[in-house]
Amino acid sequence: MLDDIDRRLLAVLVEDARLSLKELAARVGLSSPSVSERLRRLEERGVVRAYTVDIAPQALGYQLQAIVRIRPMPGRLHVVQKLIEETEAFCECDKVTGDDCFIARLFVRSIEELDRILDRIADKAETSTAIVKSQPIRRRPPPLA
Amino acid sequence: MLDDIDRRLLAVLVEDARLSLKELAARVGLSSPSVSERLRRLEERGVVRAYTVDIAPQALGYQLQAIVRIRPMPGRLHVVQKLIEETEAFCECDKVTGDDCFIARLFVRSIEELDRILDRIADKAETSTAIVKSQPIRRRPPPLA
DNA sequence: GACGTCGGTCGATATCGTCCAGCATGGCGG
DNA sequence: CCGCCATGCTGGACGATATCGACCGACGTC
């Protein structure tokens, strides 16, 4: 599905998605129109979902990051999901198998803010909160091989 | 720290980090040299950590995503952390407070692969695995406001 | 073996990025 | 209160880059 050049192209873009076509072309050993065409097709096929920017949460004042496991009370699943989605501080949420229905990541400016947000869920779900102390692995794509 | 234009710039870049300076300039109502200078400073100050590409894991053959909580056995913390870091399938790992020492995200091609990877940790740590069924919120930055 | 398709290069032209000079604004000291 | 400096913006010129069209070669099909 992806050939070797596509993979190298993606690997380069993971590092710097703003490189010029010319530079990308040089890195993978093609001409820039070819690279342009390959990118177009990767986008079209949905391999590339988006080009985006990685922003340091600290720079925005978010000093705290928490991972919350959320188990809605019977019959409250949809209400809880909606509440999570509408809370902007939740920056990632997965619906998973097992007792915990949702696992979500939360960025907050303070413990008080964390408490305030979790309080709003407290009567509809049980939550277990873990504060992030460090990130041995910060978001990376799965191996391209 | 960040003014309104910086925030709008970041908001635009989150959506498409490959837009030209000219286009970015038009979106925030400045000239392109100004935008260029603002980006340079956002990068310099560490607000922008990187420009990157969001790749669909399915396109690479990763059909399964799991979230694993990992509790190393006494004295095994560093060995376990090293093992996690060296396993490329772990694409995110946070060290957290609480009983679970690590919470990690794993991309795999099959249940067999998941089993194989967790087996390598099994004698050094207890793990609880949750398979991701859907993603109500897929990675987004915290509110820029 | 001829033909169609796909993916590539090359060169011309349009578009964009960068550099520079000059100008407006806001904060500060005399 | 006024002048001065620092900062950040703009516009235009010029070099760099993207895009488009024409063409080429490899490969698979009939």
TrEMBL record, chains A, B:
It comes from Chelatococcus daeguensis. CDD domains: HTH_ARSR. One of its GO terms (biological process) is regulation of DNA-templated transcription. It comes from the Bacteria. This is AsnC family transcriptional regulator. Residues 2-63 form the HTH asnC-type domain. Keywords: DNA-binding, Transcription, Transcription regulation. The lineage of its organism: Bacteria, Pseudomonadati, Pseudomonadota, Alphaproteobacteria, Hyphomicrobiales. GO terms for cellular component: cytosol. One of its GO terms (molecular function) is sequence-specific DNA binding. Gene3D superfamilies: 3.30.70.920, Winged helix-like DNA-binding domain superfamily/Winged helix DNA-binding domain.
